[in-house]
Design a protein that fits this description.
With 156 residues, the chain is mainly alpha-helical. The protein has two domains: 2-58, no CATH class; 71-155, no CATH class. It is 50% helix and 6% strand. The chain contains eight helices and two strands. It has helices spanning 2-5, 15-20, 23-26, 30-49, 53-58, 60-68, 115-119, 132-155, and strands spanning 74-78, 126-130. It has a two-stranded antiparallel sheet. The model is unreliable at 143-156 (pLDDT under 50).
Length: 156
């Protein structure tokens, strides 16, 4: 529907559009727009208790980006040998990720703001790394395991 009409299928209920479109000021119509106002109010209330509620749990763009981030070309990598696990890097993270526990890649919920890299006291402990090598080797490793297992079973 979105492609044929050039209108988002959820545009009538989109909380961002409801609040910042200012229609509720100039063209208030509670009879027609009550679902949009209810959803916007519920998300605003939830945002008081859960930081970034809309972005983390209900935003369609956030869901798509979450899936894409698993095969991202750039990821923040933690070097365990130089990291002293002081947790200074986790404090400024807007997503609440425990960066000091990354093994070795930071969680895929990372939005790439690089605040953790900026505040890290140890140079080189956190770095932005080009990651296709990592996920390609992961794919190859999982693809090769069944072959190796079948060869070992055939030899026994």
């Amino acid at each position: 529907m979105t492609v044929s009409t050039v209108k988002l299928w959820f545009a009538d209920y989109d909380p961002y559009r409801t609040i910042f479109g200012l229609g509720w000021i100039f063209e208030f119509n509670a009879v027609e727009q009550w679902p949009a106002y209810t959803i916007a109010l519920a998300i605003l209330m939830a945002s008081f208790f859960i930081p970034r509620f809309w972005c983390k749990y209900t935003c369609p763009l956030g869901g798509a980006l979450s899936l894409i981030s698993h095969i991202s070309f750039l990821r923040i990598r933690r070097t365990e040998s130089t990291c002293k696990s002081c947790a200074l890097c986790s404090r400024p993270c807007p997503m609440g990720i425990a960066v000091e526990k990354a093994d070795p890649l930071v969680n895929t919920n990372c939005i790439g703001c690089l605040e953790c890299v900026d505040v890290c006291p140890r140079h080189g402990s956190l770095e932005v790394a080009f990651m296709p090598k990592h996920w390609i080797s992961t794919l190859r490793g999982t693809a090769n395991q069944p072959v190796a297992a079948s060869i070992e079973q055939g030899e026994n």
